[in-house]
Amino acid sequence: MAHRRTCAFTRAGLCCYTALVGSLVYLWIIRCTSIVTSAAFFLQTPWVGKTSVEQELQLGNASVTEGNHQDDDTSVRNSVQLILQRLSSLTLQRFANAGKHLVRMNTTNSLFDDTLYLTPLMYDGGLGNFMFITASSWGLAQNNQRTMSFFETYWAEKYFLNLGIPHVNVSVWSGKDNTTIIGDDIRTNFTMYENYALAFETEMTEINGEFGNTHVALGGYLQSWKYFHQYRDEIRSLFTFHRSIHRLACLKLRTHLNEHYNKALNLSVNVGIPHRNLASPTLIGIHVRRGDILDPLQLKHGHQPASEEYLLRAPLKLQSRYKDALFLVVSNDMEYCQKLYQGLDNYIFMTPLNDWEPDAVDMAILTLMDHLILTVGTYGWWAAYLSDAKDVFYFKDWPRVDSDMRNASNAEDYFLPSWKPFV
């Protein structure tokens, strides 16, 4: 009788275990299917099988032929569609990679003691600042076998599909005796904080050795790739843009590409020569930050906008290499850019399509470029870090020499070694 009960129990347990595993596998398949399906939907471009455009032009080896106006109109549509298909393919590949790394991150985090938190004190700033603080805190948490958390919900979290940072009530854990506060934003009981905003500090990495078995709040802007670069694949997964952001980015690209190619068509017909960018172009993103950094206090601190010489010479450098270059300009001062690049027929000014366009849309577009030209600030920095751009140029004279900001920075800690300084 005992033997029968044991067998029955074993069979029941095996059935439960099998059902549990089956459920988990089913949920994972549903999640993966949802991600890929969503990506295809918001990009609004085909991704399974050959489309009519691919059949007629053979994707990746297309050529635009001249003919009557109807043929030219078709060529414009085909050219735009080919570009969007290429960018769609790149985005779908990133979604697939993000799913793989998400599994690995969840497996690794399950090994950590989830009672020990590392929580950043989030400072005011834009999207780039938020991403630096989050990425650096996440990297430091990994290296110290901790769980990164937020004290509250931040506006930028909604832009990302896989961020998933847990939230901890500060009134609960900050009142405990075993809590240590780090950061110059907390006026009591802090013992360590960031000294340099644009530099790597070894002391900031020694959290467990300094504080042991305690929760830790982390202060500073933490703007150095060295805090997290060893986890680059995971960071790129964390910062996978939400499908709504990519959908808006695709709509913006389609709108501006159509406008540009229609102008190119008119130029080709009127001048009698094929426009150099109607075939599959080399896409080069230019991020021009001005606006707030022109404030006298910002200038005094060490900010300075990129010079006009840089903004003209860097594109010429890339255009000399890539004869089919098409420049997409993103800026918070588009009027300045339109005057600077006036009369150049291979520049597209990515003006907002509406007044409520999220900050992340232009960054999502920049991450898809073949090459990038940066000016100043963390927004462009993150666009480059999330991209697969072959060439990344940055303005060498930022921050201003002999300024407080320059003295608190280290270019080797801030810019990736593969990025190229340019003046």
Automatic annotation (TrEMBL):
<keyword id="KW-0333">Golgi apparatus</keyword>
<dbReference type="InterPro" id="IPR002516">
    <property type="entry name" value="Glyco_trans_11"/>
</dbReference>
<protein>
    <recommendedName>
        <fullName>L-Fucosyltransferase</fullName>
        <ecNumber>2.4.1.-</ecNumber>
    </recommendedName>
</protein>
<comment type="pathway">
    <text>Protein modification; protein glycosylation.</text>
</comment>
<dbReference type="GO" id="GO:0005975">
    <property type="term" value="P:carbohydrate metabolic process"/>
</dbReference>
<keyword id="KW-0812">Transmembrane</keyword>
<keyword id="KW-0328">Glycosyltransferase</keyword>
<feature type="transmembrane region" description="Helical">
    <location>
        <begin position="12"/>
        <end position="29"/>
    </location>
</feature>
<dbReference type="GO" id="GO:0032580">
    <property type="term" value="C:Golgi cisterna membrane"/>
</dbReference>
<keyword id="KW-0325">Glycoprotein</keyword>
<keyword id="KW-0472">Membrane</keyword>
<dbReference type="GO" id="GO:0008107">
    <property type="term" value="F:galactoside 2-alpha-L-fucosyltransferase activity"/>
</dbReference>
<comment type="similarity">
    <text>Belongs to the glycosyltransferase 11 family.</text>
</comment>
<keyword id="KW-0735">Signal-anchor</keyword>
<keyword id="KW-0808">Transferase</keyword>
<keyword id="KW-1133">Transmembrane helix</keyword>
<dbReference type="Pfam" id="PF01531">
    <property type="entry name" value="Glyco_transf_11"/>
</dbReference>
